[in-house]
Amino acid sequence: MMHIISGTDRADSNTLKVSKYIQSLYKNLGVDVEIVDLREVRKELAGGPHYGKDQPLSLQKEINKISHSDGLIVVCPEYNGSMPGILKYYIDHFKFPESFEYRPVCFVGLGGMFGGVRPVEHLQQVFGYRNAFIYPQRVFLMNIHKTMTDGGLNDSTMCELLKAQAEGFQRFAMALKVAGLDANSWIAKKAAK
Ligand SMILES: Cc1cc2nc3c(=O)[nH]c(=O)nc-3n(C[C@H](O)[C@H](O)[C@H](O)COP(=O)(O)O)c2cc1C
Whose CA is nearest to atom 4 of ligand 1? Predict the structure, then answer.
């Protein structure tokens, strides 16, 4: 199972709408993908901080999805030149190192004229620092306030880019698994030592 992290807790967010669209692209490819909606996870994070080991069971359930995922698709809006605080706070609750190490991850940004390139590059630093496998083809959804109309993404180029990313990323994650280089193989090897 792969996971889309919808990277904000803002009500009626474009990020969640884009996440649902991306989920439908994976479904068309026959790939099961669950959305992690930070508006929901926020409820589990609220009583925190719960860094490290003493996390309530309900939060552990959310965090365990990440440390068992076949691949993460992070959809991130730009807030004040970076990622939303809730997203970094959530990432800081991930199990270390198993959530990150060798985990396939790809990124979609959304924002104004730069389409979220700044938060995506911050995220690449974070996941790169923690040894994730970063899929190189990123997608930036520019001028999202104009392209997101009637709840849908009305820009054929952007839709094509997302489709190409979904096709490529699921093959990327599968190739890592076949080669025994995926995160879950890494965890199994570590446990066997
Ligand atoms: C708090 C806040 C800060 C923002 N800062 C930026 C910014 O620095 N650069 C940018 O291009 N867009 C910025 N925007 C515009 C958002 O990227 C755009 O509205 C996008 O739809 C937000 O995603 P959301 O609808 O999922 O919250 C900001 C929006 C919000 C709510």
Answer: 79
